[in-house]
Amino acid sequence: MNQTLPLEPGEFLSLLGPDEVEALRKSGRPRRWDRGATLMTEGDTSDWVLVLTSGRVKVSSHTASGTEVVLAIRGPGALLGDMSALDGGARSGTVTALEPVEGIVIRDFSGFLREHGRIAVTLMKLIISRLRDADRKRIEYGAFDTTGRVATRLVELAERYGEPNNGGVRVALPLSQDELAGWTGASREAVSKALRSLRDRGLIETGRRRVVIHDMEGLRKRAR
Predict the structure, then answer these.
(1) Are residues 136 and 154 in the same domain?
(2) Which of 1, 11, 44, 170 is the most exposed, fewest CB within 10 Å of its CB?
């Protein structure tokens, strides 16, 4: 059994009341995936959604040349597949388990929302929040260099998943350098150079799929 992480603040499940969470659980069925499994595939169509209850996933897409672009990292409480389930269109990204994950699969999600109006309004607010975040990331790509974008993503991971570690913050990084490159819109070589620059400044320490941040404020300043 994968260790259950706390629900992420602002994610779908964290915004619901106890009665709403119970209604959601009764409307779906639990499923589990191993690390590396594909939960959803870009281009597919389906009316089901997934609410993560433990573990983390990446949402990615591929360019015409085959390059992977990581669109988001999602953790416990996240709602996945809602746009395709609501408008009948194709999945806009592939969802892959970065570690063992568990969740609730709900079919006929539109029907569920028709019966639960407040949850539908909550989802609408969540979608607006995602759009604002997407706008912010587009600005980052135009305004920040690679090191700034890498620093921004590390700060985000630390705030979401970090644990105190000898005066610093340890992040069990679920991403390879290739995936981190896809998340920052840079090449693997550029990301390696950026991480080396942050290490040389004493801001971070890196290991296999982990980062220890020794100077969070300094990393935030580099991110800006």
Answers:
(1) no
(2) 1
- The dihedrals phi and psi of 155, each to the nearest 5 degrees, come to -60, -45
Tell me the CA distances in angstroms from 201 to 158, 211, 213, one per residue in order. 18, 14, 11
The pair of structure tokens assigned to 120 is 């539908």
CATH number where 192 lies: 1.10.10.10
DSSP codes of every residue in 11-54: SGGGGS-HHHHHHHHHHSEEEEE-TT-EEE-TT---S-EEEEEE
The pTM is what? 0.77
How do the pLDDT tens digits run along the chain, 224 residues long? 344 457 888 899 999 999 999 999 999 999 999 999 999 999 998 889 999 999 999 999 988 887 888 888 999 999 999 999 998 899 989 999 999 999 999 999 999 999 999 999 999 999 998 888 888 777 776 667 899 999 999 998 888 888 888 888 998 767 788 888 888 888 889 999 999 999 999 999 988 778 899 999 999 999 87
98 and 112 in a single domain? The answer is yes
Q: What is the domain count for the chain?
A: 2
Alpha helices per DSSP H over the chain: 18-27, 82-87, 109-115, 117-143, 146-161, 177-184, 188-200, 216-223
Range of the domain at 171: 145-223
The last residue of one of the domains, among 142, 160, 185, is 142
User: Is the domain of 178 the same as that of 126?
Assistant: no
Q: If phi over 0 gives left and psi between -120 and 50 gives alpha, with beta otherwise, what is residue 82?
A: alpha
Q: Is 50 part of a structural domain of the chain?
A: yes
